[in-house]
Amino acid sequence: MIRIIRLGEDEGLAKGETSMPWNPLSRLRIARLRAENAALRAEAAELRAEQRLWRAETDHPHPVVPELLVLADWLADLTKQGAEETDPEQAATALRWLDGRLIRLFALCDVADLHDEGPVDPVRHEIVGSRPADDGRPAGSIARTVRHGYVWRGRVLRRQQVIMYAEEPD
């Protein structure tokens, strides 16, 4: 009897049949696979439509470009004026304005300022100097920030450069 079933399977396969009429599990499996295939085709069509929209959006510059152009104009204006002619109050105002614009540009790009205090973390901080621990501050903690660091979506782009409190040599 086993031999007859095998012959029946071989004959069905030879005729190009993909499922045998006598096996109800095969019919259920094929129906499920057809439904999954239809869902995948629909999802692929949605993804192609999103891709077309994305390609259309790439015809425009990144949203930060207009802000960068304004920054470039301000910097060009500052460098055109001689250092002797620049009013210190006006220069300080311009630098504060530039700093505010940079913070805004970073925010548009999901970049955040990294300005930690407390213990030094080698992943987030670059030690550029040290000073003796004083005022009860523990060795290995940040004494001062030399240059801010930056993170993008939680990933460190540039480590914060710090001066670290160190133990005084014996």
From TrEMBL:
GO terms for biological process: protein folding. One of its GO terms (molecular function) is protein-folding chaperone binding. Gene3D superfamilies: Head domain of nucleotide exchange factor GrpE. Keywords: Chaperone, Coiled coil. InterPro entries: GrpE, GrpE_head. Pfam families: GrpE. Residues 30-57 form a coiled coil. This is Nucleotide exchange factor GrpE. The gene is grpE.
